[in-house]
Amino acid sequence: MGLPELTVEEMGVPTADNPGLKRCAELARTPVGNYHYGELKIALDPASPSHYLPVVPAGAKVLDIGCGAGQTLIAACPYRVPGEGGLCLPCSRNDCPEWGYGVDIDEEALALGRAWSRRMVFSLGSADRLPYNDQEFDLVISRVALPYVDMQRAIAEIRRVLRPGGRIWIALHPFRTIFLHWRQRNWKGWCFAGYVALNGLFFHLTLRTFCLLYRREYWQSESATRRVLTKAGFVNIQREPGPPNRLSISAELPESVPGAVR
Length: 262
Ligand SMILES: C[S@@+](CC[C@H](N)C(=O)[O-])C[C@H]1O[C@@H](n2cnc3c(N)ncnc32)[C@H](O)[C@@H]1O
Fold this sequence. Notes:
With about 260 residues, the protein is an alpha/beta fold. It has helices at about 10, 20-25, 30-45, 70-75, 105-115, 150-160, 180, 185-205, 220-230, and strands at about 60-65, 100-105, 120-125, 135-145, 160-170, 235-240, 245-250. Helix 2 runs antiparallel to helix 3 (about 30-45).
């Protein structure tokens, strides 16, 4: 993700509640690791202005798409007891069920996730072709990964792997995130910001997006996202609380899904 490599000290010290964070930081000494460790710290810190997480009910089988190193799964775990010595590094429990599955296209991030957690199950795969069976999951979450994929294909795949009555929670990029590219203050950043802006507008109007040099990125309007979800058969679509630079939406499948594979 193009970030400078930080030392363990610069990454921050573990808190009294989460001594296992120190070991997480030690294992995250690469640019990709830095990014995911930074997000893990935010995810574990409810006081952070950037903190927002899905609510994961105990007993649910959950898939995180674009999971990175599993930071959202680790932080949202309903069984987590902050501490050390457990199946996940910032946790002291060894008796929790296997409930969390993560998929990402980045093998380096997944390797870090496997080092942080012996409980989550990480797989290499893409959001538009999920390596899971039909109706496997009770809840599918995706925190800022869908802005990089074809939304209609990803939502169709999510619908396929969710059981009837299952829920989806996604965090997206609203329009204002294009200014992150703009702030790079070089012509490449400005061109890319222009592409992201136009692609998001195209998505808003047509629900489709296009790639630029094999890379896809766009901003998501709430109304276009609602239309994609409705088209795929989701109901009870709701805007969830989150920081202003994120658009979080939840929805559910009806108990009986017309056309669902049985
Ligand atoms: C901004 S990071 C978010 C990571 C993590 N969900 C979080 O909230 O910190 C976006 C993630 O999406 C992943 N990603 C990008 N394209 C993907 C695709 N087609 N399928 C699955 N994951 C993808 C990236 O590798 C990266 O880990």
